[in-house]
């Protein structure tokens, strides 16, 4: 009888010991939604697929984006709305503090110290660009400023 108990116990321990590990929780791999905040310098500025020159860097705060001149000539500020819960993450720049002055809407992704923005004129979240491989009205590729 003892042999049966020992064999049964050994079988249970063996089965549990070789059970697959649980799948990782999705929350563990979530990117920090604040990763977009800070100063970013341009690597590329594209308009409809054509590379364009740039003379500024961007600074993102929780409520604004500042386009700051590299020559010290000033800055232009837009109200910033981000929606990190969207897939891909969404953003909107609003001219004049949101009083119906228009703006731009798009998607962004942060990969390490690189930020890619794809966007166009408008304000509709459902019509914002979401394909990072397609050509869009605008594409900015930026690197975190140190």
Write a concise keyword list for the protein shown above.
single chain; mainly beta; 8-stranded antiparallel β-barrel; 42% strand; globular; 1 helix; 146 residues; Lipocalin
| Rg calculated over all Cα atoms | 24 Å
What is the string of SSEs from the N terminus onward? HEEEEEEEEE
CA-based shape: globular
Into how many domains do the coordinates divide?
Answer: 1
Assess the beta-strand content as a share of residues.
35-45%
> Per CATH, which architecture?
Beta Barrel
Q: What's the N-to-C terminus distance?
A: 72 Å
Overall average pLDDT: 85
Assigned CATH class: Mainly Beta
The number of helical segments is 1
**CATH fold name:** Lipocalin
Number of strands: 9
Secondary structural class: mainly beta
Short description:
11% of the residues lie in helices and 42% in strands. The protein is mainly beta and 146 residues long. The protein has an eight-stranded antiparallel beta barrel.
